[in-house]
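Summary for the funding panel

The consortium committed to producing paired sequence-structure records for every protein in the target list. Below we show the first two records in order, beginning with the earlier of the two.
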Amino acid sequence: MHDRTSAALQEMTGKPSSRGAESGPAKPSVNNRRTSVLLREYVASLDRPSASLGSLRDALGDRGFGVLLFIFALPNLIPVNIPLLSAVLGAPLVLLAMQLTYGRHKPWFPNWLARQSVSRQNFEAIVRRALPYIERAEGLLRPRLTPLLSWTGERLIGVALLVLTVVLALPIPFGNWLPAFAICIIGLAMVEKDGLAVLVGVAVGAFSLVVAGTVVIGLLHAFFLLLAGLTGTG
């Protein structure tokens, strides 16, 4: 009974049970296969007409955070006008960033969200679009400045991602592309354990916050000018 309780608690918190806590947080074993290979194998193994978020998370294992961040942020880089796209995709991104900040090693989703699925055809289209970027990253990125991707480092990255994902979810005109780009860079950098690329992503993210802030200030200024003109107080 105690073992089952400990296992359930570990699943919810993403941290080792108290009996193994003395040795500090221990990450799950790293899968040596390329992420692109894992995605191809997952698509090939689908025996249902749909792909669920939970099954994708399980297939990715310890790479789940980086790849899921990339997949959810990527559609925001596509120049198409889909209403509320950033808000819809921003919600799971915020959830992932919060879990990184908390110190989880693998993504966790509530059952109702883990059961959410897309058709196999649509998921294959998403993977086809994502694979060229992932394979390019696999060729360019490599383990560098790995202390930035330690357990503590990933919590700090989670804080930066949380800010970016909140901004991404807001309906700021022209304010979504750069945060999404920064999240994609950081996600791929986490997968390949490239601390230098993480710093590049954080720098892009900081610049995106400046751009978003400038847009918001400009909109507020225009609003107050318009209000003053309508009320005759200008």
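The next record, for a separate protein in the list, is shown here:
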Amino acid sequence: MSAAAAPVASSEPSSAGTVPAAKTPAAKTPAAAGAAKAKPPAPEDKPFNEFVPQLLLPALAKECQAYGGPAPTLVFEEGPMPVVGGNCWKVQGDLPGERRFWLCFANPDLGAIKTIALAEGGSVPSLLEPFLSDEKKMSLALIVSRLVQRLNGQKWLGPN
């Protein structure tokens, strides 16, 4: 073997009195490391009055269309709850064939008590059903999937 070897970095000061850069510790502060690893806030952390019109309504329309039918006409408003009256926040959807649905929130909060009402043929809804009453953690995907599942169970979406 040859006596010539590749230079090896050392942590000892060089003749110039400096430590090679390869051995210098990275300049990371705990705050910078935490900020880099922090996840963006979940969509569900948005205020209710932003979450519903900006995220829920478009996601619901898109998922209904994925079943092959037209997107429902969706309105988000505060008003009387179907069947029982009383004030609530609601998403009202209109589908072809005079089919209508209401997703109601008792309070302006995703964790609030939720109900759903359905009406067909221009009639008024006569039954208010609990919606996601056993779920502890609400997510956009959960609300959309369960509502679309309910509408599809009525044979209201796509070519059923």
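Regarding this second record: The chain is about 25% helix and 20% strand. The CA atoms of residues 73 and 94 lie 5 Å apart.
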